[in-house]
Amino acid sequence: MRTNLEQLLAEVLQIPVERVTAELAMQDMDAWDSLKHMELIASLEQQLHIELSFDEIVTMRSVGDIKRVLSAKGVAV
Amino acid sequence: MDLREKQIIVSGGVKGLGRAIIGKLVSRGSVVTVFDIEETGFDSLKEEYPAVECVACDVSNYEGVFAATEEFFANHGAPDVLVNNAGILYSEPLLRFTGDGLQIHDRKTWDRVLQTNLSSVFYMTSCLVAKMVATRTKGVVVNIGSVAAAGNPGASAYSATKAAVHSLTGAWARELGPLGIRVVAVAPGFMDTDSARAATTETALRETIKRVPLRRLGRTEEVADAVVAVIENDFFNGKVFELDGGLTI
């Protein structure tokens, strides 16, 4: 069962949702560059009604990192 | 964006269009800081607008911009708005027929115009937008372009820099929009300013006015109004607001 977060990440990164694993990281994906990262941050903020700090943004370099940051903010992932 | 109490940096604001922009922003309650190389104009600017802070900075020099923007950030935090207004109006054709034959556009002048009108925009924007992103400040970058971006004969360097500034406006709007930073441009046509008059002849100016459907030059206050409008309108992004009296219809 895929979560809404995984669906959202798959949509923004334009990959099949099956590829969205905790290990998937920016460094492993050419398409996940800085521009895509900004788009991802904007989508997360908009969809989840949260605001991410700069430190959180630069920490979120893998799906696992993203989940950790969101969990710490009280978002169910 | 509501302009009240917003921290706004205007480059090149001591005279001409920059000064008119400052006047409008101050009247809207903004907190304005001017970055300008012309320190001799600071007293007169402060006399007219006592609350305006003046920073001596050659915006065409990266080290100077870096130091000045770091100091601004330490004192005020990230700005809400940056107006990239500094620039020089310069006319010189690619080739000139002289008594000695053909003379080509001076290379040093070419470099100076590019540095002042284009590199300065990159230096100021990159240094300040980095601070805006780091503090998650949502805001606006306004670039002063020109209708000369389409290619004014006799103004190769100036036209090229303004076309590049329009291009940066689109590129940066796409890059920074997701983070809540809009990037827009205002492109004046021929303006009634001392620098515009100095850069051309009376005859050429009269011919230009004939080509403008409204039969006059633009006023700095009108361009300043456009700058305020593009800052206030939160859905205006990545576009160039042309204000030329219909010259380019």
Structure description:
- The complex is a heterodimer of chains A (77) and B (249).
- Chain A is built from four helices and no strands.
- Chain A has helices at residues 4-13, 34-48, 54-59, 63-72.
- With 249 residues, chain B is α/β, with parallel strands linked by helices.
- Chain B contains eight helices and nine strands.
- Chain B starts with 6 loop residues before the first strand and ends in a 6-residue tail after the last strand.
- The radius of gyration of chain B is 18 Å and the shape is globular.
- Classes of the chains: A mainly alpha (77), B alpha/beta (249).
- The A-B interface holds A 35, 38-39, 41-42, 51-54 and B 133-136, 175-176, 178-179.
Write the topology of this structure.
The complex is a heterodimer of chains A (77) and B (249).
Chain A: H1 4-13, H2 34-48, H3 54-59, H4 63-72
Chain B: E1 7-11, H1 16-27, E2 31-36, H2 42-48, E3 53-56, H3 62-76, E4 81-84, E5 95-98, E6 101-104, H4 107-134, E7 139-144, H5 156-176, E8 181-188, H6 194-198, H7 202-211, H8 220-232, E9 240-243
Parallel strand pairs in B: 1-2, 1-4, 2-3, 4-7, 7-8, 8-9
Antiparallel strand pairs in B: 5-6
Brief overview:
The complex is a heterodimer of chains A (77) and B (249). With 77 residues, chain A is mainly alpha-helical.
